[in-house]
Every structure is written in structure tokens, then in C-alpha cells.
């Protein structure tokens, strides 16, 4: 197989950089042209907001419907695929071992056909300059912040890709920490999965946790009162009427409705389980 032309790669990288900064470039030029040099900082600030909005818009759930029918599953897979690409590219190149590790995660998540192709595209978006790792982590945290198992699984996916070559470069570790900050996790959250991956015989990757208790963000040992409280809190936070009143987008309202339905199914499953115990 012929190697890619290094010059073409550099030009492509430069083009992506220019595209990533396009809002700042145009807004900065406009500010100087219309108002003078002193307005350049304001123009750059406006351009930065525009660029950030363009970057995060690429990861709207509605664009990736093939990943999963459930909005939460879609958010989970989207975040995993894109951040794996970000981590893999952090040291400057993506190795065949890192691609294989990402493929193993896609297997665990049972992604096939169009869903897998979309996940591969998201992996590619994660490799691009200006990838909003922190912002995507924050979006994930809003959906799964109380679900420790879901967050731990995501971290293990990232670690599996990060150490696929048998080592952890400094740039890759910094990329991991950046995602962790968005997830609201301390750097120590990497210690156990890194130790398992590098010195403990490897990680055993798990699919998306779907326990009804995990969906409600509680432990199986929780009391009936704690379960009811968690259910009411979750429904109150994601109820479509509340989201509409807050001026959220139609996509967010739909996702909230799906989350409420999932919470109701989880509550019914727990009631059936406890009634039969």
C-alpha cells in the first residue's frame, strides 16, 4: 500500500486548522475593517464563540440516528467514538493498534452496518484539530453524571485505545485528562484502568450498562424511598414540559422525553423485581 504524501497531509492539516479558526479569522478581519484595530479582541471573542458552536454542532444527536434508537445510548456511543479518535490522535498519529482497539470497542457496543460506519466517522471527527473534547465530556456528564458504571466504562474504552501500543505517551495522557475534566472526574480515575491495561493482563470491556438501578443513578441496595426520590428527580429534570419552558431545542426535548420513558421502564422493572423477591 502506498504511503500518503507527507506534503498533502500537511496541506490537509493546514486546511483543517484554517477551517477550525474560520470564525475568528473572519470576525477579526471584520472588526478591524469596520471599527479599527482596538476592536480586534472583541472580534476574536465573537469568532471564538462561533467556531466553538460550529464544532459542537457536528455532534448533535439528530445527525447520528443510526447509532442507536435510544437517545442516551446514542449519546454514549457518540461520545465514546469521538473521544477515542481524539485520544488516538493526541500523539500525532493513529496506529493500526489504536484502530484495532477502537474496533474492539465497537464490537462490544454491537455496532454493525450503518451504525458502525457512523461510529467510524465520529472517530475521524475526533482526530480533527479543534475537537471539543471538554465540551463533549460535559454533555456526557449531564446525561450520565450520576451513573458511575457508565462513566467508568467510557474511561476504560479510552484507556484501551490510549495504551493500544503498549505505552502511554505524555500527549495521550494529557488528552485523557482533558476528557476527564469534562466528565467531572479527577485524574486518579485513570489509575486503576491504566494499571489493568498495562500490567494486569488487559481490560475486560463492558457494553453500555443498562441496569434499571443504573438508569436511575442508584445502587441495587437503595430503599424504596430512595428509589422513588431518584425517579422523581430524574423525571423532573428531563420532563419535556420543563425543557420547553427553559427554551431548549426540539432535539433536547425529544431526548428528555426518551429519558423520562426510560426512567419509567426502569421503575417498572424494579417494582416487578422487588415484588417477586
UniProtKB/TrEMBL annotation:
InterPro entries: DjlA_N, DnaJ_domain, J_dom_sf, TerB-like. The keyword Chaperone applies. It comes from the Bacteria. Residues 211-275 form the J domain. The keyword Cytoplasm does not apply. Signal peptide: none annotated. This is DnaJ like chaperone protein. It comes from Natronocella acetinitrilica. Keywords: Chaperone, Membrane, Transmembrane, Transmembrane helix. The chain crosses the membrane at residues 25-50. Coiled coil: none annotated.
